[in-house]
Write a structure and sequence with these properties.
The structure holds two protein chains of two kinds.
Chain A lengths: L2 H16 L26 H13 L17 H13 L9 H13 L2 H12 L5 E4 L15 E4 L3 E12 L6 E7 L9 E7 L5 E6 L8 E12 L3 E2 L5 H17 L10 H9 L10 H29 L7 H24 L15 H9 L9 H12 L6
Parallel strand pairs in A: 1-4
Antiparallel strand pairs in A: 2-3, 3-7, 4-5, 5-8, 6-7
Helix pairs in contact in A: 1-3, 4-5, 4-6, 6-9, 8-9, 9-10, 9-11
Chain B lengths: L6 H17 L2 H9 L8 H9 L18 H13 L6 H15 L1 H12 L5 E4 L14 E5 L2 E12 L6 E8 L2 E8 L5 E7 L5 E13 L3 E2 L5 H35 L3 E2 L2 E2 L4 H30 L4 H27 L10 H13 L4 H11 L3
Parallel strand pairs in B: 1-4
Antiparallel strand pairs in B: 2-3, 3-7, 4-5, 5-8, 6-7, 9-10
Helix pairs in contact in B: 1-4, 4-7, 5-6, 5-7, 7-8, 7-9, 7-10, 8-9, 9-10, 9-11
Classes of the chains: A alpha+beta, B alpha+beta.
């Protein structure tokens, strides 16, 4: 048995012993997703036990080094762990912007002291982070951001506002892009970290077309931030932000680590009924769903190849932009088909049978996929410039 | 196994890519076409392929081949695609070898060494109408004397008029049976037609063709599985070749965007073209990954291979088709001229897209394999 096979067997045994049966059920609502943080209320005992077991093993962040709360797994081992979790339909023990976004930035740019200080509470699910990037006047043109931190010697005084801050009203801390030099566009931004409980921070949820409010407006009114709480160098926060955006695109695109291939047509055939030939009883919808299945299975192979190449340094550094573009456009298409497949039932907004209009709200939510984290159009710009090397892009 | 080429495969690519580009670039196809070549490929080039061991890549070592996999064959096919090289490699060295190796027995011993040594060209006589419908084979094989009597019509048989042997799929009492029909068999006529991409594909008529019982590839009535192996290998190979065609067309087009000036600018500066080129890049990357996944699953003998093969043929078909269409459009007027190569890419893609099931056929297969 190869070392990796032995690891797989070990992981299998561990999951069998430690992943509660309830945590192998599909996620049904927002409460089933464990975000952690100071104010987190576990939905049930199983959610708590599953998180604690993973924390103890380092499996909330399997590929982070052990001193920072990870398990120190290699890329191959991490892939095996993900495959094995997927195999038993295990839920993610902990979802967090700390794991997805801040952690990688700290690992890349943080001091040893910062890594120990910030990464461990992220890995344990103790501190919930939010991200302060976009501003009302700075969306795709993020670098034009205006939130300003005035230098007061040992601290900054931050004034301004952010928008589209995911779960700002529930987060404990924020990592935030703040202008610290008005004369220097790119080299005048600092990547700050501060407590959302600081004086002068207020949040206001934004009601979206889905009827939900996962995003907030966040206002800073003379917020004092100690001048130790930043990553990288002062005025060089744009480097960190760019790195993180690349990472975010990688994350959005990294869903393809093998595992099950769920067919949208297969799922709908049961609900829809079949004709005498055993085909989904709507030939045009069947054809569209089958064409979608081809694209989604193909994208899954792409996800696997992308991750294999990314983790071993073989991928083009800008290829995560392509993954983000293709993946998010595909997801929007999926939800259009889900709505078509669901017919008038899928239009119901708050009935119990539709779990409170889950399909309709989910469909509307996906429209943000190709806007957040860089629009599809920005992704295409980046591919044209950095991969295809087209002129003037 | 990670989904990228390992060191050995990368080395193979490093030797095959310059070889094909130097010995059989697009001008090689033009020469054959303009000289009204009647063979459909260059035998000199095939001899060079043989020197490199390429015809027997997939032939098991016991039969004199290299015992490699579909991932390796795909490397060769991508270069064949990129250079639009006319070659019997796909039908002979991929499709026929997959069937013979799966079947074993007399015909495998007879033909596999001959393929590996470059002596035998093999054609695949599967299709019967204008569309690929391997589940509706009408050609019959009836028992006669010591063997069988074959009657029927086959179409889209690449290299059928020059092949030393054709693998013929026919209906027998209890199922499908594959036959190795030698070139000189009485009652076989091959009528080669020049296709849009300048290749030659034959309408083959089997009129009371008598073959011995040992002409059966594998077992009587049990040809279904062997045919499946042949189809999976050939479809995956055609998909790999389309990745090469699409990539070749895309590279040529992106280069053109960096050279051509209009309105005082390089046309590649226009966002309207940039976004389309970037979208195409994504589609080609996804197609490449999908084809590699199908190759990997075939090489592993995985159960999931069949689904992924259809996904790959459909996805590569869509992506390469986009590449050649955008290629001609972005080249503008000169894209319509015979002098420029981009139109040749469009022609080759069209023929490959149709071969062994087009995009629509394989999308339908994906639906069926998923129970709808």
């Amino acid at each position: 048995m190869s070392e990796l096979d032995a690891f797989r067997a070990e992981v299998r045994d561990w999951l069998e012993a430690n992943c509660p049966a309830e945590m192998r059920e599909p996620v049904r609502d927002e409460g089933d997703v464990c975000w952690g943080g100071r104010n987190w209320v576990f939905k049930n005992e199983a959610q708590k036990r599953w998180l604690e077991a993973c924390v103890a093993k380092g499996y909330t962040v399997p590929d982070w080094p052990k001193p920072y709360g990870g398990a120190g797994l290699t890329p191959e081992q991490t892939k095996v762990l993900k495959q094995e979790m997927k195999r038993i339909h295990a839920r993610s023990p902990l979802d967090s912007f700390g794991i997805w976004m801040l952690g990688p930035a700290l690992l890349q740019f943080g001091t040893e002291e910062q890594k120990v200080q910030y990464l461990n509470p992220i890995a344990r699910g103790e501190i919930r982070w939010c991200q302060g990037y976009s501003e009302p006047g700075s969306g795709s043109d993020l670098v034009s951001l205006q939130t300003f931190g005035e230098d007061k010697g040992d601290h900054w005084v931050v004034n301004g506002s952010k928008i589209w801050t995911s779960y700002a009203d529930k987060a404990d801390w924020i990592f935030c892009l703040v202008r610290t030099d008005k004369a220097n566009k790119y080299q005048g931004i600092t990547f700050m970290l501060f407590d959302m409980a600081s004086k002068g921070v207020t949040t206001k949820p934004i009601l979206l077309i889905s009827g939900n409010s996962p995003f907030c407006e966040t206002f800073f009114d003379d917020v004092e931030v100690p001048k130790t709480q930043f990553i990288g160098e002062i005025n060089r926060g744009w480097d960190v932000a760019k790195y993180l955006l690349g990472h975010e695109r990688e994350m959005i695109s990294g869903g393809g680590a093998g595992g099950d291939m769920v067919s949208i047509g297969g799922a709908f055939a049961k609900a829809f009924g079949k004709n005498a030939a055993g085909e989904l009883d709507d030939p045009i919808l069947r054809a569209e769903m089958a064409a979608f299945d081809v694209d989604v299975f193909a994208y899954r192979a792409m996800g696997e190849r992308f991750m294999d190449m990314w983790k071993t340094g073989r991928a083009h550094p800008a290829s995560s932009n392509m993954m983000k573009y293709v993946g998010t456009e595909l997801n929007k298409r999926r939800h259009e088909l889900v709505m078509s497949g669901g017919g008038s039932e899928a239009l119901e907004w708050d009935s119990e049978e539709t779990k409170g209009g889950a399909r309709a709200r989910g469909w509307l939510r996906t429209k943000a996929n190709s806007i957040e984290g860089g629009t599809s159009e920005v992704m295409l710009n980046v591919i044209a410039k950095r991969i295809l090397d087209l002129p003037g892009a | 196994m990670p989904l990228y080429h390992n060191d050995d495969q990368a080395m193979l690519k490093d030797s095959v890519a310059p070889f094909v580009a130097e010995q059989a670039p697009v001008s090689h196809l033009r020469n054959l076409r303009d000289s009204a070549d009647a063979t459909g490929f260059s035998r000199d080039l095939w001899a060079q392929f043989t020197e490199m061991g390429l015809p027997g890549m997939l032939v098991p070592e016991a039969h004199g081949g290299l015992g490699m996999g579909h991932m390796e064959a795909g490397i060769v096919l991508e270069e064949i695609g990129r250079n639009l090289t006319p070659s019997p490699f796909l039908s002979t060295s991929v499709g026929a070898v997959a069937a013979l190796a799966k079947a074993g027995g007399t015909q495998a011993s007879r033909w596999l060494p001959a393929i590996a040594s470059g002596e035998a060209i093999v054609a695949l006589a599967i299709d019967e109408g204008a569309k690929h419908r391997p589940d509706r084979i009408a050609t019959t094989a009836t028992r006669a004397g010591n063997g069988f009597r074959l009657d029927g019509k086959k179409s889209f048989v690449l290299h059928g008029h020059v092949a030393d042997m054709s693998i013929v799929a026919a209906k027998t009492d209890g199922g499908i049976t594959l036959f190795a029909v030698p070139k000189d068999a009485k009652g076989v006529t091959a009528d080669p037609r020049r296709l849009v991409d300048s290749s030659l594909a034959s309408h083959v008529t089997l009129d009371g063709v008598e073959v011995d019982a040992d002409a059966v590839i594998g077992e009587v009535d049990a040809g279904g599985e062997i045919l499946d192996a042949l189809l999976a290998a050939t479809r995956t190979g055609a998909a790999a070749e389309m990745v090469g065609v699409g990539q070749g067309a895309m590279d040529m087009t992106v280069n053109y965007l960096k050279e051509r000036k209009q309105f005082g600018k390089l046309i590649g500066e226009f966002q309207g073209l940039q976004h389309r080129a970037a979208h195409l890049y994504g589609e080609m990357e996804v197609a490449r990954a999908t084809v590699m996944k199908a190759q990997q699953l075939l090489d592993e003998g995985s159960e999931g291979a069949k689904l992924m093969v259809s996904v790959a043929k459909a996805k590569a078909g869509r992506a390469a088709n986009l590449a050649v269409r955008e290629g001609v459009q972005m080249h503008g007027g000169i894209g319509m001229t015979d002098e420029y190569d981009i139109g040749l890419y469009m022609k080759r893609d069209r023929a490959l897209a149709e071969y062994m099931g087009d995009v629509h056929y394989h999308i339908d297969q994906v639906a069926r394999m998923n129970g709808y």
